[in-house]
Amino acid sequence: MAHNKTLSESTTDEEPATPEDGETVLELDGVTKAFGEEAAVEDLSLSVTEGELLTLLGPSGCGKTTTLRLIAGLTQPTGGTVSIRGEAVAGDGAFRPPEKRDVGLVFQNFALFPHLDVAENVAFGIDDWPADERERRVDELLELVGLEAHRDKMPAQLSGGQQQRVALARSLAPEPEVLLLDEPFSNLDVRLRVEMREEVRRILKEAGVTAISVTHDQEEALSISDRVAIINDGELEQIGKPEVVFENPESKFVASFLGRASFISGRVRGDIVETPLGTLSTDQINGPVSAYDGAQIDVLVRPDDLEATGPTDGLADGRVVHRQYNGPSFVYRVELESGGVVRCLHNHVETFEHGQEVSVKIVADHPLAWYPVE
Ligand code: ATP
């Protein structure tokens, strides 16, 4: 068995697992998967520690699902190795089929058995357990996912969120070493999606399972994960805790994929940066820029880093070309005189009209990331 502790021994408010403090459960070492000439996954190396929830994030076609399939054993790598608890399950001359990997999979559409009730669905993967242990495990899991009262219902009688809970309980039942979740929230409506993010994280943490999830939704990745791996065109761009990858994106690709990023061009002058929206001092810039003295750089600005006002001294920086009303806030898209478009986040009472001329101020209270122009 992968986990000897019972569910009740773990708590929900535990510190999230970090790569430093756990044993490695899953390791990908230089994993490549080529389809003909094209590599869907290229030289991918990462490891996941006991109890950690890692999310693979990237645009459509970047190789997330292929990576999940390589871990599950549904497809074979053309290079590199996949190891679980230090043992190669693919590559290095080894190949263990999915059913021999101790890996659970939660499908996008939940894939419940329509002719089995909730308890029978949950018990499906442990039908070889002694009856009393099986019953205890099903009870424990139904309590974990909050479905004790629905144990005799058929899947068709459940809401989307309840179906997802059953799918999770079913995959957790055999105590897999690794649980894989493929776009776990894509089948839920928007409101439920946000609610279930919290709930799924709670369930995974309480179960203590090591999990890898896949999504193209950055907000989802940032909100549920212990660490996020950003994949671009089959390659790992950056891996780290959500707040680290969000605040310190190592590449322009990562920056533009997280948050509604815009870039303003700046010119380095000694250790400060001149931009069309004002001069940035050393403490407004992430790391020293002096090595790029005289060079052009791109500075990352997100909507909450900027503020629009009426034109200062009759001088405007640009014009509002779009206003998005989100209820509590407005996001104004401003086309700058100097070229480029930025977004400004405002309280719902601060209104500007479409086409209105505005000044734009940098109001970020953190150092801004920047990238040399190549
Ligand atoms: P999405 O978010 O759209 O599901 P993804 O990031 O999961 O995308 P993959 O499904 O892993 O992306 O696909 C990565 C690349 O590999 C794509 O270019 C895809 O066309 C290609 N690919 C995937 N499976 C195969 C296959 N069986 N044969 C040939 N090419 C494939």
What does this molecule look like?
- With 374 residues, the protein is of the alpha+beta class.
- It folds into 2 domains: 7-254, Rossmann fold; 260-372, OB fold (Dihydrolipoamide Acetyltransferase, E2P), CATH 2.40.50.140.
- It is 21% helix and 34% strand.
- It has helices at 64-72, 118-123, 131-144, 160-172, 190-207, 218-224, 242-247, 252-257, and strands spanning 24-35, 38-49, 53-57, 79-84, 87-91, 94-95, 103-106, 178-182, 210-215, 227-232, 235-240, 262-269, 272-275, 278-280, 296-301, 306-309, 318-325, 329-336, 341-347, 357-362, 370-372.
- Bound molecules: adenosine-5'-triphosphate (ATP).
- The site of adenosine-5'-triphosphate (ATP) has 11 residues, from helix 1.
Compose a concise summary of this entry:
With 374 residues, the protein is of the alpha+beta class.
Summarize the topology:
Blueprint: E1 24-35, E2 38-49, E3 53-57, H1 64-72, E4 79-84, E5 87-91, E6 94-95, E7 103-106, H2 118-123, H3 131-144, H4 160-172, E8 178-182, H5 190-207, E9 210-215, H6 218-224, E10 227-232, E11 235-240, H7 242-247, H8 252-257, E12 262-269, E13 272-275, E14 278-280, E15 296-301, E16 306-309, E17 318-325, E18 329-336, E19 341-347, E20 357-362, E21 370-372
Parallel strand pairs: 3-9, 3-10, 7-8, 8-9
Antiparallel strand pairs: 1-2, 1-4, 4-5, 5-6, 10-11, 12-13, 12-15, 13-14, 15-21, 16-20, 17-18, 17-20, 18-19
The structure holds adenosine-5'-triphosphate.
